[in-house]
Amino acid sequence: MIELEHVSFSYADQGPSVQDVTFRLEKGEFAAILGANGAGKTTTVRLMDGLLKPTSGRVLIHGADTAKSSVSERAARVGFLFQNPDRQICKNTVREEVLFGLRTVRGQDGEEALQERADAVLKEFSFTGEEEPFSLSRGQRQRVALASILAVEPEILILDEPTTGLDYLECCQIMDRIRRMNEERQVTVIMVCHDMEVVLDYARRALVMAGGRLLADGPVPEIFRDTDLMERASILPPQMIALGLRLGAGFERADSPEKMAETVLSLRGKEAAR
User: Which pTM does this prediction carry?
Assistant: First the structure.
């Protein structure tokens, strides 16, 4: 779905923000890019969407070079949720916002079909459509932005800090919706996220960056259990992983409350047998 081939990027009058990054994402993956502030995460996802063009190397979406493709061609396949939804909401009602993306990308389907699609998305996200986006809460505006993206049915969804400013319930609502889309429609998802608990709960693959370089790429629990890597990337692992590593004695593989409980019961059973 997406390939980065030895990609580097530098902002004007600054040093390199991304240096020689190479990886690929297959259909249906759910990946997270991790790292401290300034690691190059947001620059990388903006390169993946074609919002930025590489200084060197290539970014391919379905084999097409983003440096040679148009915005409309990329928008038909890639949805991008900004960290701040106010930077992508531009209409006076939620219905108009959802229809804006549909008309721009799926206009060839006809107005009646677009209105039906908008109705379905509004119902799914519990909007009437008449709400004024900027009178809504931060979490609700994030849902408006996500609804407008999902209405287009992208094959790839890129999320830049999707849970910033959300309370626990809003976070679960947004992330559960994204997970269902990933599992049911095999939409490829990649997100930048500072909340390691969210990463552990939802992502299956982690790419770790520091200083603009890719340090590691692997399954989420294995990445978090690499204490040397976490220290190099200035990342604190999720509490469940950290607790399991500290307890040791069979708890090292416990990465959820359920697995922690299973380990406790297993150890108790072994102790009773002895």
Answer: 0.84
Only one residue has tokens 């297959």, namely 26
The rounded Cα 168 to chain-centroid distance in angstroms is: 17
Average confidence (pLDDT) over 37-66: 90
Q: Which residues of 63-97 are buried (b: 16+ CB within 10 A; e: fewer)?
A: eeebeebeeebbbbbbbbbbeebeebbebebbbbb
2-220, which class in CATH? alpha beta
Q: What is the pLDDT of residue 92?
A: 93
Task: Label residue 94 left, alpha or beta by phi (over 0 means left) and psi (-120 to 50 means alpha).
Answer: alpha
Kindly state the average pLDDT of the residues 62-66: 88
Give the gyration radius of the chain's Cα atoms. 21
Q: What pLDDT, on a 0 to 100 scale, did the predictor assign at position 269?
A: 64
- Structural domain boundaries in the chain: 2-220
Q: Check if the beta carbon of residue 209 is closer than 8 Å to that of residue 177.
A: no
